[in-house]
Design a protein that fits this description.
The complex is a heterodimer of chains A (450) and B (305).
Chain A lengths: L1 H21 L9 E8 L6 H16 L3 E8 L3 H13 L7 E5 H9 L7 H5 L9 H5 L10 E3 L5 E6 H6 L11 H14 L4 E4 L8 H12 L7 E2 L4 E4 L2 H15 L6 H4 L4 H9 L5 E7 L3 H4 L10 H4 E4 L13 E3 L2 E5 L6 H11 L2 H10 L7 H4 L2 H4 L5 H6 L4 E3 L6 H16 L5 H16 L4 E3 L1
Parallel strand pairs in A: 1-2, 1-3, 6-9, 8-14, 11-13
Antiparallel strand pairs in A: 3-12, 4-12, 5-9, 5-10, 7-8
Helix pairs in contact in A: 2-16, 9-20, 10-20, 10-21, 20-21
Chain B lengths: L12 H13 L3 H21 L9 H4 L7 H8 L2 H34 L2 H16 L2 H12 L4 H8 L7 H4 L1 H26 L3 H9 L4 H12 L1 H16 L3 H6 L11 H11 L3 H29 L2
Helix pairs in contact in B: 2-16, 4-16, 5-6, 5-10, 5-13, 6-10, 7-10, 10-13, 11-12, 13-16, 15-16
The chains are: A alpha/beta (450), B mainly alpha (305).
């Protein structure tokens, strides 16, 4: 009887021990797991490489800690959705994750992100980040919730051979919208089979439509989408209608791709993979990350891109100051608000974003560096022939108004461009409908007529 | 209450029967519980969420508030809703009730007349589309209808025009794709039903001089009426819920020209992060499905003598 009691007791003790080991209250020196969630696609493995190297480094330096990498295979939209769903529940929320800059404010508002101010104050590397980039991680309350991995700018990318064949003087530096149309018409006249100047439009290309097309136009008219001081959305501006009218001209005169091609979500793959390398497209507006597709190891390797392609700033409408327009976005790393060990999670974030890892990542994904010690690195500056050109555009760049309403507003803009290029609505009509849509989304009192 | 020996009441036949009746329900309990948790639960949650401003991100993600009928008010004044409802009806009516149903019946009838190898080949071809996982079938249909796809290559060889199907006729493309994918189900149901039609009844009609069409219209179809109603109910509900096929082929575009209700619900809830509004759309969809289901169940009851 006593032996049986003993064995029962020991069994209970063993069970209690086993339970203890996997309960959150485990002592510090026992096994710990950090869950890291990020995006990985066929054409974007740089981040995967970054986290693999950070994992090895971190696990070697912190015995007993396991970093569990959970890449999500999805496009930007679907990644955002999956991440938001995971963040809703404490049991699925990751400890460290990859977060789009334009979602930082609304996710901080939702209580998904951990405020990092205390940790950043003790992290000496933070001083090497430039101030504009630091602003990308701010929440509405002025606290910092995310640390940027890099940033980007948008510019005109043109195929020198196509432009030269049409008799355009190189380097091409359009000063006004009219210059773009003139050159595009010239290319069209010399070779009708070439797409002279493509700009995205429609809902299929999502944020690409606004970031790499519409906002370059809108912000070059002097108007804007959102009045940040008054915290109101701008409606009824001439710039909005003019921007739509410019897209209409491009598509009506067949200077861009056909509307049917524009409304295919995969159109950008053809731009990078077929039309530009094969000399079937004169120019397009794309991000500073473009070389990442063409460089060695990219998804559309094109050894001659360095000599065949040229970069120009997107001009303002009539050449008014500052003479160019660009848009910036970029991604960050953030720590989940529900993480069990904030110190450890932040420590991992610091490892992932140290000079060495940032440098490798910025080179591999053609990102514009936000750390001073990366930007000044010779290897970074020589990473591709366009680093200098696209980095200079930071001086004329704009950021999206990253409020929680933004995704809907952006969709309304995309819808307006789609209606115009398919001929469903005139630019004036599409702009009026956009105004009504904005008022419906944020309420009439949050709009301002300009 | 202590039960003393001897005072135990003898079970009367009546209580025994009641107990047995209840005990008979016991094996069903796990199934009912599972249904409640995994079927009724999400449906109720969706109804509840549609009365709140729950969101994927932003302040409302943290503290969703009760907004009453606001989502429904917005929904019924949204110009996209009538369009989306119309497209859903067109999609269900055209591709399920007419397309899959009639084509399935035709193939099933013809297969009875066809030679064995022909029937086997046709059956395999039709069922192949049904066997494919939805995502694979969707990509296959996308590849077939896309600008440089198989269909346009075939049309090119024939010297015909090559429209961009997914852009110019998105509904035609997704309806054809759904017919292609779903016909097998109707065909299988009708084959089984036709096998149950007693041969002597048909033969008697033949002796009375009924032609092939008359035999089909007055003998066969009335006799398989129950199967028709069951099949219609199943394919209607299946087609109402089709999402992957539409999402992969057109994503609801161009300009909402193929935004059926499931696509609309997804876009609102997950693309715009407005879970409250998205679940309101989903609730409308559930109600439409329930209405269809009730109508067919009535039809089935009437069919029975």
């Amino acid at each position: 009887m006593r032996r049986r009691a003993l064995s029962v007791t020991s069994l209970i003790a063993a069970a209690a021990l086993a339970l203890c080991a996997c309960s959150p209250a485990a002592p510090a020196d026992q096994a710990k797991t950090l869950k890291v969630v990020y995006q990985k696609t066929d054409s974007f493995a740089a981040l995967d490489d970054l986290f693999k190297s950070a994992k090895a480094e971190f696990e070697a330096a912190n015995a007993g800690v396991t970093v569990e990498l959970q890449p999500i295979q999805a496009n930007d939209d679907d990644y955002g959705t999956k991440l938001a769903l995971a963040l809703r529940s404490a049991s699925t929320a990751p400890d460290v994750f990859y977060e789009d800059t334009f979602k930082v404010r609304s996710d901080a508002d939702a209580g998904y992100l951990l405020k990092l101010d205390g940790h950043l104050a003790e992290w000496k590397d933070w001083d090497t980040f430039d101030d504009a980039a630091k602003a990308a991680g701010l929440g509405d309350d002025g606290g910092t919730y995310a640390v940027p991995l890099g940033t980007d700018t948008r510019a005109i990318w043109y195929n020198k051979k196509v432009l030269a064949a049409a008799g355009v003087n190189l380097p091409w530096e359009p000063k006004t919208w009219q210059d773009i149309l003139d050159t595009a018409r010239k290319i069209k006249a010399s070779d009708p089979t070439v797409v002279p100047f493509n700009m995205y439009a429609g809902k299929a290309t999502g944020e690409g439509t606004v970031m790499q097309s519409f906002y370059e136009l809108l912000y070059g008219t002097g108007d804007e989408l959102y009045d940040a001081d008054a915290k109101k959305w701008v409606v009824g501006s001439d710039g909005f209608t003019d921007s739509l009218a410019f897209l209409k001209t491009l598509y009506d005169e067949q200077l861009a791709v056909s509307p049917a091609e524009a409304l295919d979500a995969n159109v950008w793959k053809k731009v990078f993979g077929e039309w530009l390398p094969q000399g079937k497209m004169g120019a397009t507006v794309e991000g500073s990350y473009s070389p990442s597709f063409w460089q060695k190891g990219g998804s559309y390797e094109w050894p001659e891109y360095g000599t065949d392609m040229g970069v120009a700033a997107f001009p303002t409408k009539d050449g008014q100051a500052p003479g160019g327009v660009s848009m910036s976005g970029g991604w960050t790393l953030a720590v989940g608000a529900g993480t069990k060990d904030p110190g450890l999670a932040f420590k991992f974030l610091g490892t992932a974003l140290n000079q060495k890892n940032s440098l490798t990542f910025n080179i591999a994904s053609s990102q514009i560096a936000v750390r001073g010690d990366v930007a000044s690195d010779a290897g970074y500056q020589a990473a591709n022939p366009f680093v200098k050109d696209v980095s200079e555009l930071v001086s004329v760049t704009h950021y999206r108004p990253a409020t929680a309403d933004y995704p809907r507003i952006s969709a309304a803009v995309q819808e307006a461009t789609e209606a115009v290029i398919t001929g469903a609505k005139s630019p004036e009509q599409a702009a009026t409908d956009y105004d009504a849509a904005v008022a419906g989304i944020v309420g009439g009192d949050k709009t301002v007529r300009k | 209450m202590p039960v003393l020996p001897g005072s135990r009441p003898q079970p009367t036949p009546r209580t025994q029967a009641a107990f047995r009746r209840r005990a008979r329900l016991l094996p069903v309990v796990p199934a009912v519980l599972l249904l409640l948790v995994f079927l009724a639960g999400p449906v109720l949650w969706a109804f509840h969420a549609s009365f709140t401003n729950a969101a994927l991100t932003g302040r409302n993600a943290r503290n969703p508030g009760w907004v009453g009928l606001e989502n429904y008010q917005r929904l019924f004044t949204d110009p996209v809703l009538p369009l989306s409802l119309g497209l859903t009806v067109l999609f269900v009516g055209g591709s399920a009730i007419l397309g899959q149903n009639l084509l399935g019946l035709t193939i099933a009838v013809l297969m009875r007349q066809a030679r064995k190898p022909v029937a086997a080949a046709v059956g395999t071809a039709v069922v192949a589309a049904w066997v494919l996982p939805e995502i694979v079938a969707a990509f296959a249909a996308y590849a077939y209808f896309s600008r440089d796809g198989t269909l346009n290559q075939l049309l090119g060889w024939l010297g015909l025009g090559q429209p961009d199907w997914l852009y110019a006729f998105p509904m035609v493309a997704i309806m054809l794709a759904n017919v292609w994918r779903g016909t097998a189900f109707s065909m299988l149901v009708y084959r089984a039903a036709l096998d149950d039609v007693p041969a002597d009844v048909t033969e008697a009609a033949l002796m009375d001089g009924a032609g092939a069409w008359q035999r089909l219209a007055f003998i066969t179809l009335p006799m398989i009426r129950g199967s028709i109603a069951t099949n219609l109910m199943l394919i209607t509900l299946q087609t109402l819920a089709v999402f992957t096929l539409v999402w992969v082929m057109t994503a609801g575009g161009p300009s909402n020209a193929s935004t059926t209700l499931p696509v609309l619900a997804y876009v609102e809830a997950f693309k715009f992060g407005d879970i409250g509004y998205g679940t309101a759309v989903a609730s409308v969809l559930i109600l439409i499905g329930a209405a269809f289901g009730a109508a067919y169940v009535r039809l089935l009851r009437q069919g029975k003598p």
